[in-house]
Amino acid sequence: MKIGWHTVLIVSDAQAASDIQPTFLEQPDIRLLSSSAPRDALDVAQRERPALIIEDLSNSNGESLNLCRKLKTDSLTRGIPLILVTDREQRRAARRAGPDIVLEKPLVQRDYFEAVQRYVPLPKRRDQRVNANLRFIYSADGMAGQAFSRDVSQFGAFLKTDRVLRHGTDITLRFSLPGDSQEICCKAVVRRSCVEAAITGGRNGFGIEFEEIDDPDMDRLQNFIRRNRRRFRFFG
User: Fold this and answer.
1) pLDDT higher than 80, residue 161
2) Helix, strand, or coil (residue 38)
3) Alpha-carbon torsion 30, 218, 35, 100, what sign?
4) Would you say residue 44 has pLDDT above 50?
5) Is the pLDDT of residue 69 over 70?
């Protein structure tokens, strides 16, 4: 094993892998291992002794829960931090199985990032964003609209608008960066709705988290953030 690597074992079926293997885990100092079968994951964990195990509780036949119990009782693996990702209906059973952290689907990437960061050093901070008055064109629930951002990070943005979308709404959007004529097009989900302008004196709006953004577009967005970086609190 390369010196300085932090090994992370991800246990999930192929369908769930996109949910629990986000791009922030793809770091030079992180060695990712995967297992699609709970029955094989214990052997991998015993052999590799990863710094962290992330398990998707994707089946209802008890196999994934049994793996969690075995990981937290086996002498070789019980000291390894374990994050369980589960549906709301299985959350109570998941907690009883003994993981260190339980995260509920649909995953909020900020919470996921912070949970992983407890056990594996991650070089990118979620709370770094920049003031940016960018024009976003979006569509959701059969409606189209536009809004201007208050600030933006590589993970999301806060959009100022009186048409506040509800938490969990899936949207498609496009926007351009200053000095860049090529639009960024991606999907996003609403993670925060704010309708307190009358009380706070601020602007109504909603916070979005980017999803399905192409690698070239992400590179352009990250370069923009680096050039204009200031430290802000992430919405949530």
Assistant:
1) yes
2) helix
3) positive
4) yes
5) yes
Query: What integer best gives the mean pLDDT of the chain?
Result: 82
Distance of CA 199 to the CA centre of its chain: 31
Residue 235 neighbours by CB distance under 10 Å? 21
Residue with tokens 């208050």: 150
N residues, the chain = 236
* Beta strands at 143-152 and 156-160: parallel, antiparallel or unpaired: antiparallel
Pick the CATH number of 6-117 from 3.40.50.300, 3.40.50.1820, 3.40.50.2300, 3.40.50.12780: 3.40.50.2300
The whole-number pLDDT of residue 14 equals 57
Structural element, H or E, at residue 136: strand 135-140
DSSP 61: S
Question: Which residue has 């926007």 as its token pair?
Answer: 175
Rounded distance, CA 233 to CA 44, Å? 38
Mean pLDDT, residues 16-23 taken together: 63
State the Cα angle at 101 between 99 and 104, rounded to 5°.
110
Distance of alpha carbon 65 from its chain centroid, rounded?
23
Superfamily of domain 129-231, CATH level 4: predicted glycosyltransferase like domains (2.40.10.220)
Q: Which of the pair, 100 or 126, is modelled with greater confidence?
A: 100
pLDDT at 101 over 60: yes
> SS3 helix, strand, coil % of the chain, rounded to 5?
25, 35, 40
Which ranges in 123-182 belong to alpha helices (H)? none
- Cα distance between residue 99 and residue 72, in whole Å: 7
pLDDT at residue 199, rounded to an integer = 39
